[in-house]
Amino acid sequence: MRKLKSGLLSLIIAIALVIPISSLLVPALESYAESEHAPMLEVFQEIETESGRIDRKDCDIVYALTTENVNCPLPDGAEGLEWDFDIEGENEQKIEFLIGDEEASPGAAGIHFYHEGIYHYKLAESKIDRKTNIEYDESEYDIDVQVSTELGHQTIKAVWVKRETGVKPAAIRFHNVLKKSKVIGDPPVNVVKRIEGGTPTQKDKFIFVMTPAQDDFPLPYGAVGEYETYLYGEGEIEIGNIEFEKPGFYEYRVWERANPALAYSFDKTVFMVNYDVREESDGSLSCKRTITRDDAGNSSEDDCTFTNIYNGNNAEPGSDPDEDGSSADTPKGDKPQGNTPNEDGNSGIISTITKAASKVATGDSTVLGVYVEALVLSALILLAEYLRKKMKKAKIT
Fold first, then answer.
1. Which of 143, 171, 189, 345 has its Cα between 20 and 30 A from that of 395?
2. Residue 397: its pLDDT value, please?
């Protein structure tokens, strides 16, 4: 029995001399990479949009390799216990584990180990300065590197990698989604309608049109080609909002569509509405809107104001005089009061009746009352004249 115990003790001592104690402390993790050569990890970045995978070079994402142990080496450029690196588009970053002063492979970031042991790291996408238009991969990878001494030489014995879920990954991949950035053209374009020259008898419909400088420029409510809005009579109305999804300079024209059937001289002004859409550092879009007139250089306008001249109340040159005997283009003067007899001895009321009737026939309903009143008065005058002549004849006989 004593010999058996002595033999077991000798065996344990022999194992201890051959196998470093550090190797007995290796965590129960599956090996991601194990090689007698300097192992290398590749960190892959994937970018996806709503239309599928895309290699967007402007999609720059920052990663952080961290450790909690000051004795864990990090690549050159690390600050404290963290080394940050960025990957542009669909690309990868190589991390190579080296012994001593070995040189890293081209394009790889080297981590140099000088002592045996097990070194623990975490790898994840940085949470600093994130862009609003990216849906980030929140995965976190644990990386353990075992450095051991064999036959008098240090070597990278193994590298273990697992995700926070405890699952061994086939590779280190971060899958990010590039969301579609949007910005509303604000403030909306305000259209103002003014009417001069008279007072319309009804509120007519006025149509305003927005047309883009290029066919692929967006329009309010998804309109294609052009966008129309309208109002009745004087007033104001806002053109619908425009939603922009990418940076650029967008130009539009706003004008009023003339209607020959209406008694107006239409305003022919064309307003230039421009949107300067830019991408900010956080990935969001900003928009600045300006309005200028095509006939006023670069002068800035607050809105699009259209002034129409109403012609419905204006008498045409050379028209008949109005009820007091003066025309629209002739100054009114003093005129004899009362009725003036004409050739047949009757009052001038007959002439007035004729003129009133002609105006009613042409659609001027404002003189209809005058016409009826004159007609009754004329009948009374004719009756009185008839009775006067009858009485005069009776006296003679």
1. 345
2. 53
The tally of domains found in the chain comes to: 3
Same-domain pairing of 105 and 149: yes
Q: How far is CA 64 from the centre of its chain?
A: 34
Question: Is residue 22 over pLDDT 50?
Answer: no
Rounded distance between C-alpha atoms, residue 291 and residue 299, angstroms: 8
Environment class of residue 65 by beta-carbon count within 10 Å: exposed (0-12), middle (13-18) or buried (19+)?
Answer: buried
- The pLDDT tens digits of the residues spanning 137-175 come to 999 999 999 999 988 889 998 899 998 777 778 789 999
pLDDT of the residue at 313: 61
Query: Which residue, 348, 344, 372, is CA-closest to 359?
Result: 372
Can you give the residue range of the structural domain that contains 386? Answer: 349-396
**Running DSSP on this structure, what letter comes out for residue 13?**
H
pTM of the model: 0.49
- For residue 28, give the nearest of 165, 162, 173 by alpha carbon: 162
Question: Do 254 and 375 reside in the same domain of the chain?
Answer: no
| 275 lies in the same domain as 353 | no
The answer to whether the CB of 26 falls within 8 A of the CB of 122 is no
- Which of 254, 285, 310 delimits the end of a domain? 310
Residue 260 CA: distances (Å) to CA of 112, 296, 311? 84, 26, 12
Nearest to 58 by CA among 279, 243, 277, 244: 279
Identify the residue whose tokens are 């300079």: 249
d(CA 379, CA 31) in angstroms, rounded, equals: 122
Reported as half-sphere exposure (CB side, CA atoms, 13 A), residue 169 has a value of 19
- Say which amino acid occupies 94: K
Give the pLDDT confidence score for residue 180 in this predicted structure: 75
Q: What is the pLDDT of residue 369?
A: 53
Cα radius of gyration rounded to whole Å, the chain: 47
